[in-house]
């Protein structure tokens, strides 16, 4: 034990253990609890002091597999409707294992021609999949948050350039505040990107016409006119998590063109609406943006961590992310350079491989079918909600998210928030299905998102049953508590 050199021949045996565990885990995924609170104590088996000796390869891997398969949140399964989380398609999962097998550093061509060439293909396929012009480029990132960082770093560089400053080299000192304009849908992740880039997360000027956050295009346009030609950045949101709604991207693009502003669109999951003629109208105008942030680990159903930034002028990536040359590194213009100079990270996983594999396996048609099936399932859930006397839908369903609340007959409005909040907690403890709460238009509500390739109508019927079951229990205990007072 101890030195891994003595364990070389354990590699295949350890991988075989993983494969042996994979079968039962994947088979159980459709029916098991999303979260089994009875298994939680097992997490203690991973705690304790750093081992001095080490238990050896097989013992460590076996412990991890035992605890991991018991305590994992089954977010890769069909009944996880919280947040927006995809699963892993068969091809993406196998390709992700391949990434670890090959252990490439997707930093520069000199570290991996395979990773570099595959990233170029994967980005081109993603671009083509969502219907963007061939001259667009991009970079793969760890997440949509880092894709927001990428797009907004380009915006920052562009904006500083308009003020005669190279922000990459010299930072923001001496510059005015960068005007950042958006609607009420601007995601916290875009704010986090602004915070990381030194603009501050509160810098966003929000123009919304209601409590839901719908964009007030006229007000945003007036603000751009007031800025009188000063360069500004607009953030559009394509697919907001409460209801799946979109900012009117074509209107934003029009304003950006009129006022020579930078248009960044956060399209983490909404970008895939472009795949179906039924929903493509939502993304109209996306092709007029300057930068787009999106996720592969959501609706593309690729394992974590996988996001991507697509940009209209790819030559800007090197200007924003080029690094001062250490003598041993290729310079940004060196043919041995690569994506490590075109995005926020340097050493990185070959995350292009699962994207490549899943697109190679299922193609445009397969993904269009997946998006359309999920929209049909959302419509099915909306119909079940509409038909149920104790459920109330709160919003339209443009895509794959259904926003509704539990509302038993006779319960007063002022009691509903507390009942729905408790219901949300009860759902997470119960574990049969997972859905979280939000506040929509002033009301506490559930907002299940359908983005897992395994999900079927049965899973949504179960969601309705569980919500009604737990909802009636919560309502009963609320009434009992009220009667006691
Ligand atoms: C999920 C999401 C993000 C953040 O994505 P991560 O991959 O978690 O970083 C950003 N914007 C929107 C609209 C999202 O739905």
Q: How would you describe what is shown here?
A:
The structure is a single chain. This protein has 485 residues and is an alpha/beta fold. The protein folds into three domains: 1-35 and 52-69, no CATH class; 94-361, Type I PLP-dependent aspartate aminotransferase-like (Major domain) (Aspartate Aminotransferase, domain 2), CATH 3.40.640; 363-484, Aspartate Aminotransferase, domain 1. It is 42% helix and 9% strand. It contains 13 helices and eleven strands. It has helices at residues 11-28, 57-71, 90-102, 113-129, 144-162, 167-170, 188-196, 217-227, 249-258, 315-321, 352-387, 413-430, 457-484; strands at 137-141, 180-182, 204-206, 233-237, 262-266, 291-295, 307-311, 391-393, 404-406, 437-440, 443-446. The strands form three sheets. Strands 1-7-6-5-4-2-3 form a seven-stranded mixed sheet, sandwiched between helices. A two-stranded antiparallel sheet has the order 8-9. Strand 10 (437-440) and strand 11 (443-446) form a beta hairpin. The relative contact order is 0.14. The mean pLDDT is 96. Residues 84, 143-145, 187, 189, 237, 239, 241, 266, 268-269, 295, 307 line the site of pyridoxal-5'-phosphate. The site of pyridoxal-5'-phosphate (PLP) has 14 residues, from helix 5.
Q: So what's the CATH class of the largest domain?
A: Alpha Beta
Indicate the radius of gyration in whole angstroms. Answer: 24 Å
Overall number of domains: 3
Structural class: alpha/beta
Characterize the overall form: globular
**What compounds are bound to the protein?**
pyridoxal-5'-phosphate
Q: Which strand order do you get reading across the main beta sheet?
A: 1-7-6-5-4-2-3
* CATH level-four homologous superfamily name of the largest domain: Type I PLP-dependent aspartate aminotransferase-like (Major domain)
CATH topology descriptor of the largest domain: Aspartate Aminotransferase, domain 2
The end-to-end distance, rounded to whole angstroms, is 64 Å
Quaternary structure type: single chain
Question: Residue ranges: pLDDT <50 for 5 or more in a row?
Answer: none
Biggest sheet record: 7 strands, mixed
- Tell me which CATH architecture of the largest domain applies here: 3-Layer(aba) Sandwich
């Amino acid at each position: 034990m101890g030195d891994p050199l003595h364990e070389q021949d354990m590699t295949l045996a350890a991988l075989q253990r993983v494969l042996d565990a994979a079968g039962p885990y994947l088979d159980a995924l459709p029916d098991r609890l999303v979260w089994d609170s009875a298994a939680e104590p097992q997490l203690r088996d991973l705690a304790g002091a750093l081992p001095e000796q080490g238990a050896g390869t097989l013992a460590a891997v076996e412990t991890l597999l035992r605890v991991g398969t018991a305590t994992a949140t089954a977010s890769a399964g069909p009944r996880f409707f919280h947040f927006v989380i995809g699963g892993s398609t068969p091809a993406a999962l196998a390709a992700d294992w391949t990434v670890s097998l090959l252990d490439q550093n997707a930093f520069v061509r000199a570290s991996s021609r395979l990773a570099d060439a595959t990233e170029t293909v994967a980005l081109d396929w993603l671009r083509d999949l969502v219907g963007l012009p061939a001259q667009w480029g991009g970079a793969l990132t760890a997440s949509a948050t880092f894709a927001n960082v990428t797009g907004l770093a380009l915006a920052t560089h562009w904006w500083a350039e308009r003020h005669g400053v190279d922000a990459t080299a010299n930072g923001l000192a001496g510059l005015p505040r960068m005007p950042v304009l958006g609607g009420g849908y601007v995601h916290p992740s875009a704010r986090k990107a602004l915070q990381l880039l030194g603009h501050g997360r509160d810098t966003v000027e929000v123009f919304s016409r209601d409590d839901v956050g719908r964009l007030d295009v006229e007000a945003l346009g007036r603000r751009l006119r007031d800025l009188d030609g000063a360069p500004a950045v607009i953030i559009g949101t394509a697919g907001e998590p409460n209801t799946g709604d979109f900012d009117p991207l074509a209107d934003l693009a029009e304003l950006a063109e009129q006022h020579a502003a930078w248009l960044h669109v956060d399209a983490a999951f909404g970008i895939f609406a472009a795949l179906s003629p039924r929903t493509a109208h939502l993304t109209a105008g996306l092709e007029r943006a300057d930068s787009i942030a999106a996720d592969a680990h959501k609706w593309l159903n690729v394992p974590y961590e996988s996001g991507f930034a697509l940009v209209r002028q790819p030559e800007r990536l090197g200007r924003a992310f080029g690094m001062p040359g250490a003598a041993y590194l290729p310079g940004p213009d060196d043919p041995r350079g690569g994506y490590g100079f075109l995005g926020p990270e340097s050493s990185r996983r070959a995350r292009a491989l699962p994207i490549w594999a899943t697109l190679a396996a299922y193609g445009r048609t397969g993904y269009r079918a997946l998006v359309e099936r999920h929209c049909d399932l959302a419509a099915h859930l909306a119909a079940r909600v509409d038909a149920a006397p104790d459920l109330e839908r709160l919003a339209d369903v443009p895509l794959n998210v259904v926003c509704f609340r539990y509302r038993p007959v006779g319960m007063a409005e002022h009691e509903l928030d507390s009942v729905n909040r408790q219901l949300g907690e009860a759902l997470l403890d119960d574990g049969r299905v997972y859905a979280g709460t939000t506040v929509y238009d002033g009301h506490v509500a559930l907002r299940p998102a359908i983005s897992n390739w395994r999900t079927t109508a049965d899973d949504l019927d179960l969601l309705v049953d569980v919500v009604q079951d737990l909802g009636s229990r919560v309502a009963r205990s609320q009434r009992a508590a009220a009667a006691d007072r």
